[in-house]
Design a protein that fits this description.
By secondary structure, the chain is of the alpha/beta class. 29% of the residues lie in helices and 20% in strands. The chain has helices at 5-12, 56-63, 79-90, 103-107, 121-133, 148-160, 175-185, 220-224, 251-268, 372-385, 395-414, 430-433, and strands at residues 2-3, 44-49, 69-75, 98-100, 114-117, 137-140, 165-167, 192-200, 275-281, 295-302, 306-313, 325-331, 334-338, 342-347, 352-358, 418-419. The longest helix has 20 residues, at 395-414.
Length: 448
């Protein structure tokens, strides 16, 4: 089966999320959240906050006439990013959005209906919470939170303020993935019992940090936002904040595992794990500036003898599973391989039974990303705000996948695995619970 690009976008606009009928993991978002009117003509007024490498993912869903949205603001703490975003959009829309450095000024504008939050990790939950309190609906890129405290709070704030919140785990809006999940639900591989989620990349050597002057045009105070204050260091601005400690990033697991762990959990029909164990270390360029693990094996145990394993290799390009990233689901009567391009169903003997390949485009391990899958995911969000669709990745469900990322990072940081309450997601370990939250800059603490 093949889904071409035009059909993919069209189907996403008419309820592809509804294909996943019978999935046991359901959103707790209230029905009222899907019953609202945005203006007399359903036009959604949009602000994008964070104009870095994910900017390209939002151009098509905003520029498409059928989306019926108006871009009001392009917001970023760096002049260079704002000017670049304005230039990029000028090729696709015939009007100009306002440029603004300070998210607080954007949120003060009552005309803004939704915020697309593509800031660095440490801003995802705090910025989204600020937006909801200001009356905005939020599409927040993964990882939706920096720690478990934010993870819980994000869900609570969405419920309190009755806002539509979607995480950017865009494979939830992939037609071939949705169809294969339904195959699994209908017994195509018997009882699914194990998921293997993996990511392989060849990231190179990272420079050592040095104290230097703040780049011209960058508001370093606003970049830090809720994070504790420190002096600016070279290389921090452009992507390498991912690897320079825990002030801003969530390591490779937060950067990429969020996607595949989410698909594995969806396929197995599980929620919180009961235990996590991790082996992780920095294996490459041991004297460079990379400050956390670059290689991780994590194992999550669930009720019903189900298991999910994460195999993350940031700087070793050997494709153990024949692809750069993806998810393998094992069942009592067969197996499934899923990635952003295809889903393949095998019987117990390893014979291909069904091969769904999509001709739509979506980035894999390349920096930035974007493509038809993301476009469909953003359109699904816009239509959920209008009350015309249910979210593909509502925050109350997406946050459970996000918790798996935090568990693995915490296990690495404290040097041991631990048990977890499968109902609440709380960790049965005092050392682990010390990392439940983080230190915040006074005055920037996220609150309900």
């Amino acid at each position: 089966m093949s889904v071409n690009r035009r059909d993919f976008i069209k189907k996403m606009g008419v309820g592809a999320a509804g294909l996943a009928v019978g999935a046991p993991i359901m959103s707790n978002t209230s029905a009222k959240s899907y019953n609202r009117i945005i203006g007399s003509n359903d036009r959604v007024h949009v602000a994008i906050v964070g104009l870095g490498r994910r900017l390209g993912a939002f151009i098509e869903p905003i520029a498409m006439k059928s989306s019926n949205v108006e871009l009001l603001y392009l917001c970023d703490v760096h002049n260079k990013q704002m000017n670049g975003a304005m230039n990029a959009f000028s090729k696709h829309i015939n009007y100009k959005a306002k440029l603004e450095k300070d998210i607080r000024k954007v949120l003060a504008d009552k005309q803004v209906d939704v915020v697309l939050n593509a800031t660095p990790d440490h801003w995802h939950a705090p910025g989204s919470i600020m937006a909801m309190k200001a009356g905005k609906h939020v599409y927040v890129e993964k990882p939706c939170s920096h720690n478990m405290f934010e993870n819980e709070l994000l869900v609570d704030v969405a419920k309190k303020y009755d806002k539509v919140v979607q995480m950017g785990n865009q494979q939830r809006s992939s037609l071939h993935t949705i169809e294969m999940i339904n195959e699994i639900r209908n017994g195509a591989i018997g009882t699914p019992y194990k998921g293997v989620a993996f990511y392989t990349n060849t990231r190179g050597e990272v420079p050592l940090q040095k104290r230097v002057a703040v780049p011209e045009g960058l508001d370093w105070e606003l970049f830090q936002g809720p994070a504790p204050r420190r002096e600016y260091t070279s290389e921090t601005w452009d992507y390498n904040w991912h690897w320079y400690g825990w002030d801003y990033g969530t390591a490779e697991t937060g950067n990429n595992a969020t996607h595949e762990l989410d698909i594995a959990r969806w396929a197995l029909g599980v929620d919180y794990p009961t235990r996590v164990d991790v082996e992780a270390a920095k294996r490459h360029f041991v004297n460079d500036g990379w400050e956390m693990y670059d290689t991780m094996d994590a194992t999550f145990h669930f009720t019903g003898d189900k298991i999910i394993k994460w195999d993350g290799k940031s700087r070793n390009g050997f494709e153990t599973y024949g692809a750069g990233r993806g998810t393998i689901i094992y069942g009592s009567e067969g197996s499934v391989f899923m990635d952003r391009d295809k889903s393949v169903l095998y019987d117990r003997n390893g014979k291909v039974i069904k091969d769904n390949r999509s001709t739509s485009s979506e980035a894999g391990t390349a920096l930035g990303g974007g493509g038809d899958m993301t476009t469909g995911h953003v359109i699904n969000f816009f239509d959920a705000v209008r009350g015309k669709e249910k979210l593909s990745a509502p925050i109350d469900d997406a946050s459970i996948s996000m918790a798996m990322v935090h568990y693995s990072n915490i296990a690495y940081r404290i040097g041991k695995g631990f048990d977890i309450d499968e109902k609440s997601g709380r960790m049965y370990d005092r050392d682990a619970m010390k990392l439940w939250s983080r230190e915040y800059e006074p005055g920037w603490e996220p609150t309900l």
